[in-house]
Design goal:
This protein is an all-alpha fold and 125 residues long. The protein is built from five helices and no strands. Helix 1 runs antiparallel to helix 2 and helix 3 packs antiparallel against helix 4. The longest helix has 26 residues.
Length: 125
């Protein structure tokens, strides 16, 4: 049986917890400063992009994860914004979107192995 080379679930859970922590810290700081216009998603997106670039370059899985996570953020913020304050909605939507994106990414990385340099050379010859 071949080895599965997907993103480990344990690592995914650690990154997910870090995303939630970043959202919580950003929420706290922006709430204290009373600055609802600054984006909470920016540090989380930078964290995920850096993790993706440094550790797991599964491009198809990354595209699927970005789409799924963005959809969750947009839907949740659209539904919750009339009921909660903007900072809370942005923090919750961002954390939930990151969670969905990470689950999609880890799952899809097991289905679609990354293209290696040797695979790229074979496809281009």
């Amino acid at each position: 049986m071949s080895e599965i080379r997907g993103v480990p679930w344990r690592e995914t859970a650690r990154v997910m917890a870090l995303c939630w922590a970043v959202c919580g810290v950003a929420y706290s700081i922006l709430n204290i400063l009373d600055e609802p216009t600054l984006p909470i998603a920016a540090p989380v997106v930078m964290l995920l992009a850096r993790w993706f670039w440094d550790r797991h370059r599964h491009w198809a899985a990354g595209a699927a994860a970005a789409f799924a996570g963005s959809a969750v953020v947009f839907v949740l913020t659209d539904l919750a914004r009339p009921h909660w304050d903007r900072i809370a909605v942005d923090a919750l939507g961002t954390a939930a979107g990151a969670t969905v994106a990470l689950v999609f990414f880890a799952g899809a990385s097991r289905l679609m192995p990354p293209i290696t340099r040797s695979d790229h050379a074979i496809h281009n010859s």
